């Protein structure tokens, strides 16, 4: 049976040596060279737990990649390039070598995909697979959730509903047209955080949030923390979502607004900067979508749909939602 | 039933506002003002899992304090003052408000005890209580595990065996004299990492390690990573340990060497600096104990007891040891 040292060795030996200025993995702490003068330290931790975060069909490689992706998405939304990460891994006793190797491959893939270095971690015995990723980076400032003013455009880095559809396909066996099924399942198993667009448009955003708890909660959070109302002009439905929804008697609106697990950026852009933002997004290979406008909190409290109905403050909530 | 937002609120409302330069808890990431120019970022994560790390008699308050203490101890061993921490918490569904409040109190106590700020975290549903602490600080350099040369003193910040004795009392009902029992149980439930002495003597240490996996493994690790042998002159038995061991038919040597969970510093000091190190330790309210000397790896491979027997490379190893 593998012990702690075997597991650490199986993971770390896949990674090359850290460059000058870092302390090699294996000391009591990790050491990361400082950012530029005046840059603050940006930190994020996000815990993935198998029982709630790993759908059927997700390998350990996909799971460990996703744990890193969850943090990368937060950095993307704040316009901060991630530098390094650590992982605390909880594994059931008797975990196979193949699963540990799979987990290590996912971390390596994540490290290459987003240019982040693994600098350390911790291994513990747990009842369930647990991967807690901690990410560090440097920035002079970050785009806050609280920076939106009235009269700005509300934007997203992509469409919504596809990941939730993917989870319904994987968990509930929902039926889908082959092309949609492939895209939906892939977005659930191999989420693609919007790092390139996040870094490209950060300078144009007055506020932003990572949408992984769902579009509705993301909009409500910006609304509450910025003190503005949000009037949606349209919902950013994923391509094929409405067909998928009607085929399975789901509501496309519910899937797009309340599903969660979409690693998009939701934010606000002052009107005078929208062309610049769109151009920068396009140069990063991505389309920035305008989905509505902010108004004063006096004019509207919360978030309203095009037809005036209110968007519920609902989405993926741990201890409330069921996977 | 409490949901994720209730839990985050119960924890964060106990902490005051973060000072200028920090981003308030509740954004996608935490932001920590930089260290002094040229200082690197020091990071550590350590995951506490109830099933292996929480003995009978340990409250949730003690558990969350211990999770932070585990990281503080690593910072202490490296001579680095910790600045801030984040916690990823995994909680069973249906966790009571009282337990969440208890957990929050332990984090607050830790924050005050070691002067570290809580800057963020994550909450997930898990089968078991899991507290993953991630700590950050700043330093120009750290004391490494690999810096020992031959002909130096091997030192510890305290004695060994008491915590293991405490765990045997709590888990196995081992018998003990009241004074020893009180000290032993307290060291298991309320570990005291050696931050003051660690910061005071760091400049005198050529190598060091946090001893939480046990004295034997700590000595072996310094021996291997520094490429030296270690000849022990005496074992740093805790006061009353031998009496406790004989009363319960344990071996005091086994308890002191292979127990683990003692948050002491084990290190090496060049002979010319030992008086300075002892004086600095004393000024930090602590005695630095010389327990042996390093020799060349040619003369001795590994770690030897005063009578010449070898110290096994054994201690607390996840997936191998049983609590």
Provide the number of structural domains of chain A.
Answer: 2
Instruction: Please state how the strands of the largest beta sheet of chain A are arranged side by side.
Output: 7-9-6-10-8-11
What's the CATH H-level superfamily name of the largest domain in chain A?
PurM-like C-terminal domain
CATH class categorisation of the largest domain in chain A: Alpha Beta
Of all protein chain pairs, which has the greatest interface, and how many residues does each chain bring to it?
A: A-B, 75 and 73 residues
CATH topology of the largest domain in chain A: Phosphoribosyl-aminoimidazole Synthetase, Chain A, domain 2
Please summarize the sheet with the most strands of chain A. 6 strands, mixed
Determine the number of helices of chain A (DSSP H or I, runs of at least 4 residues): 11
Element-by-element helix/strand order of chain A: HEEHHEHEEEHHHEHEHHEHEE
pLDDT averaged over residues of chain A? 95
Low-confidence stretches of chain A: none
**What oligomerization state is this entry in?**
homodimer
From the spread of the alpha carbons, the general shape of chain A counts as globular
Strand element count of chain A:
11
Can you name the CATH architecture of the largest domain in chain A?
A: Alpha-Beta Complex
Radius of gyration of chain A: 20 Å
Residue share in β-strands of chain A? 15-25%
Folded structure, characterized:
The structure is a homodimer of 323-residue chains. By secondary structure, chain A is an alpha+beta fold. The first copy, chain A, is 36% helix and 22% strand. Chain A is built from 11 helices and 11 strands. Chain A has helices spanning 4-12, 50-53, 60-78, 97-114, 162-172, 178-189, 195-201, 215-226, 241-247, 252-258, 274-283; strands spanning 30-32, 40-49, 82-91, 117-125, 130-139, 152-156, 207-210, 228-232, 265-270, 289-296, 303-304. A 6-stranded mixed β-sheet of chain A has the order 7-9-6-10-8-11. Chains A and B meet through helix 1, strand 1, strand 2, helix 2 and helix 3 of A and helix 1, strand 1, strand 2, helix 2 and helix 3 of B. Strand 1 (30-32) of chain A pairs antiparallel with strand 2 (40-49) of chain B, so a sheet runs across the interface.
């Amino acid at each position: 049976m593998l012990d702690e040292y075997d597991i650490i060795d199986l993971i770390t030996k896949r990674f090359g040596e850290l460059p000058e200025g870092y302390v090699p993995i294996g000391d009591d702490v990790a050491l990361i060279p400082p950012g530029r003068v005046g840059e603050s330290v940006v930190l994020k931790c996000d815990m993935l737990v198998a029982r709630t975060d790993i759908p059927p069909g997700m390998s350990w490689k996909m799971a460990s990649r996703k744990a890193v992706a969850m943090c990368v998405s937060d950095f993307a939304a704040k316009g901060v390039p991630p530098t390094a990460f650590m992982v605390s891994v909880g594994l059931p006793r008797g975990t196979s070598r193949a699963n540990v190797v799979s987990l290590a491959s996912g971390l390596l893939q994540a490290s290459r995909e987003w240019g982040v270095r693994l600098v350390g971690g911790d291994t513990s015995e747990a009842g369930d697979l647990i991967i807690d990723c901690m990410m560090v980076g440097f920035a002079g400032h970050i785009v806050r959730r609280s920076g939106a003013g009235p009269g700005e455009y509300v934007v997203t880095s992509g469409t919504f509903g596809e990941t939730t559809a993917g989870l319904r396909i994987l968990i509930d066996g929902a039926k889908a047209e082959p092309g949609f099924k492939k895209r939906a399942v892939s977005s659930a198993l191999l989420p693609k955080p919007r790092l390139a667009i996040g870094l490209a448009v950060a300078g144009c955003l007055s506020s932003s949030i990572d949408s992984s708890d769902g579009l509705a909660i993301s909009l409500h959070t910006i609304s509450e923390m910025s003190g503005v109302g949000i009037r949606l002009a349209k919902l950013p439905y994923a391509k094929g979502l409405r067909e998928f929804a009607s085929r399975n008697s789901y509501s496309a609106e519910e899937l797009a607004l309340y599903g969660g697990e979409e690693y998009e950026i939701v934010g606000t852009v002052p009107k005078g900067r929208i062309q610049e933002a769109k151009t920068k997004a396009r140069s990063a290979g991505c389309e920035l979508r305008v989905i509505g406008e902010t108004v004063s909190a006096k004019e509207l409290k919360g978030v309203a749909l095009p037809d005036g109905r209110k968007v519920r403050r609902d989405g993926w909530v741990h201890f409330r939602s069921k996977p």
